[in-house]
From TrEMBL:
Belongs to the UPF0309 family. PANTHER family: PHOSPHOHEPTOSE ISOMERASE (PTHR30390:SF7), SEDOHEPTULOSE 7-PHOSPHATE ISOMERASE / DNAA INITIATOR-ASSOCIATING FACTOR FOR REPLICATION INITIATION (PTHR30390). Gene3D superfamilies: Glucose-6-phosphate isomerase like protein, domain 1. HAMAP family: UPF0309. Residues 36-221 form the SIS domain. It holds the Pfam family SIS_2. PROSITE patterns: SIS (PS51464). This is UPF0309 protein K7B10_22475. InterPro entries: RpiR-like_SIS, SIS_dom, SIS_dom_sf, SIS_GmhA/DiaA_subfam, UPF0309.
Length: 251
């Protein structure tokens, strides 16, 4: 099989997953967008969290051209990226009990805020406890996860539960257990993960829905412009100043 055919198969698989999300998750995406719009309109704050590669879709909506300026990344030290040495430490920290609570207690997140938690499997202690602790603090929790993992794997949290069990709104990425869309004779392991493509699209769809909801309420969405277009820096400066009390990535 040619390399180009494999590449095409992956793109087709990703498109198929995106079509499933569009067709099957549209109501939940709209609900999540409304929750975010309500938080913005009521003066509350927005946070996004993900560990390992699940941090990538969370980072993609923070300080993003074309995105809402109010989304803050809730970082758990050592779990965000592959800059941690050794890289396997990040995976290990996802299984540490109590870490999520310590991070939330030290964060500005409080009652009425919205926290989006991204975890493909939703089975590790960190995302489960993050959701449990956030709801206990009065936050609205939106979980972005693959629901298939809840039936195809066992939870690693002492409760035996998954992220999806502790969310106000669940967005299902439809990713199969193992996150690999292709296989081929002569290659022992499945390959070509699509979770980042799909989850990032879900996050942008939610933010688009939120912007539309705010506009429908007669409120200008606090969007950022590209700094690489004329006037972009000036626009962003005004937005960041106006909403500075809810933006924590500048401090």
């Amino acid at each position: 099989m040619s390399e180009s055919k494999l590449a095409g198969q992956f793109l087709d698989a990703a498109i198929g997953l995106l079509e499933r999300v569009r067709d099957e998750e549209s109501a939940h995406i709209a609900e999540a967008g409304t929750a975010i719009a309500e938080a913005v309109a009521s003066g509350n704050r927005l946070f996004a969290f993900g560990a390992g590669h699940s941090s990538l879709p969370a980072q993609d909506v923070v300080y993003r051209a074309g995105g809402l300026a109010l989304v803050n990344f809730l970082a758990v030290p050592g779990t965000v990226g592959i800059d941690v040495m050794p890289a396997t430490l990040g995976s290990a920290l996802e299984r540490v009990d109590g870490l999520a609570g310590a991070v939330l207690d030290s964060s500005p997140a409080t009652d009425g805020d919205v926290l989006v938690i991204i975890s493909l499997s939703g089975r590790n202690a960190l995302p489960v406890e993050m959701a449990m602790n956030a709801r206990a603090l009065g936050l609205k929790v939106i979980g972005v996860t693959s629901v298939a993992y809840a039936t195809g794997t066992k939870s690693r949290h002492v409760s035996g539960t998954f992220l999806k069990d502790h969310c106000d709104i669940v967005l299902d990425s439809k990713i199969a257990v193992g996150d690999a869309e292709l296989s081929l004779d002569g290659i022992d392991a499945p390959f070509a993960p699509a979770s980042t493509v799909v989850t990032s699209a879900i996050m942008q769809a939610v933010m688009a829905a939120a912007a539309g909801e705010l506009a429908a309420r007669g409120m200008e969405p606090p969007l950022l412009r590209s700094g690489n277009v004329d006037g972009g820096h000036e626009w962003n400066g005004r937005v960041l100043k106006e909403y500075g009390d809810r933006i924590f990535f500048r401090h």
